[in-house]
Amino acid sequence: MNQLTTKFDATTGESNGTQLSAPPSLMDSFARVLVRLGILTEDLDYHLIRASMVIIFLFFGYQKWFQYEADVLIPYISNGPLIFWLYSVFGVRGATWFFRSLGVVVRCALVLRVLE
Predict the structure, then answer these.
(1) Residue 17: is its pLDDT beyond 70?
(2) Buried b vs exposed e over 90-111: b needs ≥16 C-beta within 10 Å?
(3) Cα separation values, 51 from 13, 42, 44, 55, 88, Å
(4) What is the total count of domains within the chain?
(5) I need a surface site. Which of 1, 48, 82, 107 has the fewest CB within 10 A?
């Protein structure tokens, strides 16, 4: 058989054995670990989208812990049709506390697979 026709089965990590054995590279070892964890066998796109959502929520959520972000959110919160009441109830700092708490809950729910 030709070396270009070697087939690799991603679910078992085995090949048809037509190629000469070479020392495993770092990428091969990484792929085998991912296969054993079950990440590469099913729903890879689902895991990537979930991880990207957590990262995006984390990047946007960490800013709400600082005063400059609370000041920037004032026009958005005060003119929002569903959240305009937050300043009258909680104040500026309380509204940002509300949003960062909500962000932490959403990130935790995504990581724990509650939001599916």
Answers:
(1) no
(2) eebeebbbbbbeebeebbeebe
(3) 24, 15, 11, 6, 36
(4) 2
(5) 82
16/63 same-domain check: no
Residue 28's domain spans which residues? Answer: 3-37
3-state helix, strand, coil in the chain (%, to 5): 65, 5, 35
Position 54 pLDDT exceeds 70: yes
Residues 48 and 98 occupy one common structural domain:
yes
For residue 65 the two structure tokens come to: 């812990």
Whether residues 77 and 26 fall in one domain: no
Average pLDDT across the chain, whole number: 76
CA angle 54, 56, 59 (to 5 degrees): 110
User: What pLDDT score does 75 carry?
Assistant: 86
Question: 40, 10 in Cβ contact below 8 A?
Answer: yes
User: In this predicted structure, what is the pLDDT of residue 66?
Assistant: 78
Q: Which token pair is 95?
A: 């509204």
